[in-house]
Write a structure and sequence with these properties.
Radius of gyration of chain B: 22 Å
Structural class of chain A: mainly alpha
Helix content of chain B: 55-70%
Oligomer: heterodimer
CATH superfamily of one domain in chain B: Cytochrome Bc1 Complex, Chain C
Strand content of chain A: under 5%
Largest sheet of chain A: none
Order of helices and strands of chain A: HHHHHH
Low-confidence stretches of chain B: none
Number of helices of chain B: 11
Shape of chain B: globular
Distance between the termini of chain B: 84 Å
Largest interface: A-B, 83 and 91 residues
Shape of chain A: elongated
Number of strands of chain A: 0
Strand order of the largest sheet of chain B: 1-2
CATH topology of one domain in chain B: Cytochrome Bc1 Complex, Chain C
Structural class of chain B: mainly alpha
Helix content of chain A: 40-55%
Mean pLDDT of chain A: 75
Strand content of chain B: under 5%
Mean pLDDT of chain B: 92
Largest sheet of chain B: 2 strands, antiparallel
Low-confidence stretches of chain A: 1-15, 17-23, 35-53
CATH architecture of one domain in chain B: Up-down Bundle
Chain lengths: ~170, ~350
């Protein structure tokens, strides 16, 4: 009989388990206290203000932050609105079409995040440092093309092959 | 004299050179059931991730100015790029699920008890490594979720002080942190994974398959070779499911990130930590995670009850399920809550 078959399942040269002993409450308490101590350490402030930066002054960054808030799931309209207001009053508006930002702010006030995002991307399109293509999310979907159908067949065949191996093994 | 079939001749030729018969040692019948194959299946998933990761790495630029564009190029201009990326992303999720299920099986069956307590520790280290893979992979995508994960990395490093030096941008000020985390994803973590998996498998071999926590009639004799074959079968199923998911639900790519705003939530493995962060701030995320791993490491210390049967370990099992319930509760709370700013970034 190979080892691993008996109840102990010990390999050669492995010493037996120490005999039954009373659980050491001190050890149990110490082990339980560690996470508790760490939890207490975790309890201080509900939020940690670890920033040492300042609000960005350039409209381009603020508009991009507004775009990020709009792209979140669900869109964070409050953050987007704050950032757009800051962008509209920013002193550095280089590379940003501010007329479109104003239009975007109006669209946002009408709770239309989709139009707002399109206008903001257009507003940044004039910026040389922002590649407008990178501001649009890339969300591929299943379209049922020939290639995708072949992949579905391949995946199904792999699952069937795997099931066959499992059943025969 | 009858001539042997070619598979037998091939086996004999390989066995004479590689001593493959050493893998044909006996294992208990229950070792070939799915709960006891989860570890091997996790290994199959990791191999799949290494394979697809090596291919993806040929098209990835680990630089903040080019990473997002390189992911997009992979998705739009590289033949089979989208499905390759989809398999990698879905296999990462599936493998992590398998790792967690494997850990739960080991806990429920008490397989962490002496003399396997050292291997439990290696397993906890493996869980941390797999989570680190997941985290660095998330950052490498380089969209808004990625940069917010990176900002959390930086703030946690700051909270740790000198201990967090390695993880802070100041450690190598002229190298972007994204580049360093990418390096960790493709070299440091695979090295750690290799060492830990080797140790894990070695200790499983030394101690044998752990006994069942209840009396059972001995089943038919099985060999480790059959165990491996069955694990390979489940591995093929994992690959097939990854291909199907990559085709039906391909992963997307968000806009290029912008720093200074916190509007996303982390992926599902980090939702419990995010829930803690919502309640206790960044220290909650850090120390809650440390507490979880301290708790996992202390499991063999906490459970010293003689006998491995379920009836003898009722209290430990109930406590474990309560801890799991708390973890899942925090995760669900984080999942249904709206993203909150924690870092007060500007």
């Amino acid at each position: 009989m190979g080892w691993g078959q008996d109840g102990s399942s010990r390999g050669p040269g492995i010493p037996p388990a120490p005999g039954p002993r009373r659980p050491s409450w001190r050890r149990c308490l110490a082990a339980a206290a560690l996470p508790l101590l760490l939890a207490v350490l975790a309890s201080p402030p509900a939020t940690a203000d670890t920033s040492d930066g300042e609000e960005p002054a350039d409209a381009a960054t603020l508009v991009r932050q507004a775009l990020a808030a709009l792209d979140a799931a669900p869109p964070n309209l409050d953050v987007a609105s704050d950032k757009l207001q800051d962008a509209l009053s920013a002193s550095d508006t280089r590379g940003v079409d501010m007329a479109r930002v104003r239009e975007a702010a109006q669209a946002l006030s009408l709770h239309d995040p989709s139009t707002t995002a399109h206008l903001l991307i257009a507003a940044l399109g004039a910026s040389s440092r922002d590649d407008a293509r990178l501001l649009v999310p890339l969300r591929p979907r299943f379209r049922g093309t020939r290639g995708e159908e072949m992949l579905l067949v391949a995946g199904t065949l792999l699952v069937a092959l795997g099931v066959l191996i499992v059943l025969r093994a | 004299m009858t001539r042997r079939s070619w598979p037998k001749r091939l086996w004999a030729a390989l066995d004479a050179r590689l001593a493959l018969h050493n893998f044909l040692y006996e294992v208990p019948a229950y070792a070939n059931t799915l709960p006891y194959l989860l570890g091997a299946l996790a290994l199959m998933g990791l191999l799949l991730l290494v394979g697809t990761g090596v291919l993806l790495g040929q098209f990835y630029v680990p630089d903040p100015g080019a990473a997002n564009a390189s992911v997009r190029a992979l998705m739009t201009a590289v033949p089979a790029g989208p499905v390759l990326r989809g398999i990698h992303a879905w296999a990462a999720d599936l493998t992590l699920v398998v790792v967690i299920l494997h850990m739960l099986r080991v806990f429920v069956t008490g397989s962490y008890r002496f003399p396997r307590d050292a291997n439990w520790t290696v397993g906890v280290a493996l869980l941390a490594t797999v989570l680190a893979f997941y985290f660095t992979g998330t950052v490498m995508r380089w969209d808004q979720e990625s940069i917010e994960a990176l900002e959390h990395n930086v703030e946690v490093a700051r909270l740790l002080g000198a201990a967090g030096g390695w993880f802070s941008p100041a450690f190598a000020a002229h190298v972007p942190l994204l580049t360093r985390l990418s390096m960790a994803h493709v070299s440091l973590l695979p090295l750690a994974l290799f060492i830990l998996v080797t140790a894990h498998v070695y200790l499983v071999r030394q101690h044998g398959i752990s006994p069942l926590p209840f009396p059972a009639a001995p089943g038919p004799r099985r060999t480790f070779g059959q165990h491996l074959l069955k694990a390979a079968g489940y591995g093929v199923i994992l690959l097939g499911v990854s291909v199907l998911l990559a085709t039906l639900l391909p992963p997307g790519e968000g806009p290029a990130p912008v720093a200074g705003v916190e509007v996303t939530k982390p992926p599902w493995p980090f939702l419990p930590a995010y829930g803690l962060e919502n309640w206790f701030g960044l220290p909650g995320l850090l120390w809650g995670t440390v507490a979880l791993f301290a708790l996992l490491l202390s499991v063999p210390l906490l459970d010293r009850t003689p006998g491995g049967e379920w009836s003898a370990r009722r209290r430990v099992l109930v406590l474990g399920m309560c801890a799991l319930g708390v973890l899942v509760g925090f995760g669900v709370y984080a999942w249904v809550s709206h993203p909150l700013p924690h870092l007060h970034l500007h």
